[in-house]
Specification:
The protein has about 170 residues and is mainly α. It has a single domain, classed as Methane Monooxygenase Hydroxylase, Chain G, domain 1 (Up-down Bundle), CATH 1.20.58. It contains four helices and two strands. The chain has helices at about 10-45, 45-80, 90-95, 100-145, and strands at about 155, 160. A two-stranded antiparallel sheet has the order 1-2. Helix 1 (about 10-45) runs antiparallel to helix 2 (about 45-80) and helix 3 packs antiparallel against helix 4 (about 100-145). The longest helix is centred in the last third of the chain and has 47 residues, at about 100-145. The chain is elongated and about 85 Å long. It starts with 8 loop residues before the first helix and ends in a 12-residue tail after the last strand.
Length: about 170
Amino acid sequence: MNSTAITDSTDHDARIISHLRDEEQTLAILLVAVREIRQALLNRDGERLTQALEAEADSFQMGEVMRDKRATLRQDMAARLHIAPEAVTLSRLERCVSAEASGELEKCRQRLQQMSDELLRLNRQNAAMIQQTLDLTERIVSQLTGGGPHFTSYSATGQSESPHVGPVLQWGG
């Protein structure tokens, strides 16, 4: 520990590590929901998607609670370290706790970073799948309703021809 070490270090070390483990658990729950969303999208399973989105919404609420707890912890640690709450970072805390706690903090940070990276990757993949589906749906609706761009084509003699035959819904039977 250095000169900015937190007094009563053992209690504070335990509190910080406990909080980080709670952060990990909250992020893990969100990851499960996002993985479920991905599987539902891949399988085109609307019911499963609805359930997964509800689970994701629940995890967002848990995240809000965790954010408030994080803010409280940062304020408490800032007061003990005589710094601004926004200056309380994991890096800063690692320098202010016992060597054992510092090692555990680093492990927690690595796990949180890995989970955050996976969450970002999954969200990007899910967004890409949704965008592809939306693009396809828009093209289909456009063809069915006659909307969208109509391109001129040319016959073998160079005469322009419009391949547009109207909306599919007006073709009749």
